[in-house]
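2024-03-11 09:14:02 DEBUG pipeline.ingest accepted 1 chain
2024-03-11 09:14:02 DEBUG pipeline.ingest length=347
2024-03-11 09:14:03 DEBUG pipeline.predict start
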Amino acid sequence: MQSIYTNTTISDELASRLHAMPKIELHVHLEGATDATTIWELAARNKVALPATTLEEWQSMYAFRDFNHFVEIYMLAADCMRTPEDFTFMTVQFLQQQATQNIQYCEVFLSATFMLDKLPADELIDALIEGAQRGEKQYGTCVRFIPDFTRELPDSRYRVLDFVLQGQAKGIFIGLGVGGKEVGFPPELFEDVFAEARRQGLRVVAHAGETEGAQSIWGALHSLRAERIGHGVRALEDLQLIDYLRQTQIPLEVSPSSNYCLKVVPTDQPHPIRALMDQGVYVTVNTDDPPMFSTDLTNEYQLLARQGFSWEELWQLNLNALHASFLPDETKRVYLAQWQDFAAQAE
């Protein structure tokens, strides 16, 4: 992939400050946060055949041609995750990686449609709880999960909802999402399961406006009543939608490097998060699938700094993630008090 657009350089001091900044992440997938080497090892352990003869060849397949190619590789990776121990290990490893960037809390997607074909729901939930507890104890980063169902397999949606409700009862799942290919599977198809999820007290989010345009976002907002939109960068194609997002302040979970790598945004152009922010849309910064896009959350903030974002703007984006999270208000206030101390020292 050609180099991503930048129009300035940043100081070592700012780079260091962004690394040390206490952070929250709202849009990252557990499977996609598992690096290629780990996937290769899981494939060998679980006797899953990958279409590569060496680790280097497998790593080279992470150069994505487009979104559909990405989904193909993502599904191959997810198929290597077969046992409860895999999911516990992946969760601990993920929290270790998050902690190195001072990410204190994250809300993480699970591709539940495919998980449930491999393991009983209760075993999977217990494995995730074990990983979350062990990872938080060792590294200090807290995680809660948002399982999602895949658009291309709509019949899985109620099975996933049942799974989410089981995990909600154990305190590890907080919401329901929908992901997968937008093209051909509009949000309106899933109005029923989202209504039931809301009735059961779950938070609801939806991927929209990534590979499809503004109509997909409208559907997620009106039919699904999504509380946050995953990606949403194509909202800029509809000024009426921009007005609506500005008025309602419904957060967008924006992942710049993902958008560049999957050709949603041309690499020679500034990322549209600037235009969204300038028009008053509520945006947050995320990684989506960090090792698949050779990034992490610190790098995402540094990328935006190299595109001209000031420290004050980047700090506000970070605060946006805290306020847009599904944490209880009391917990948000605790984080905010701690973060204000960091901000004061950084000035």
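2024-03-11 09:14:41 DEBUG pipeline.report The radius of gyration is 19 Å.
2024-03-11 09:14:41 DEBUG pipeline.predict end
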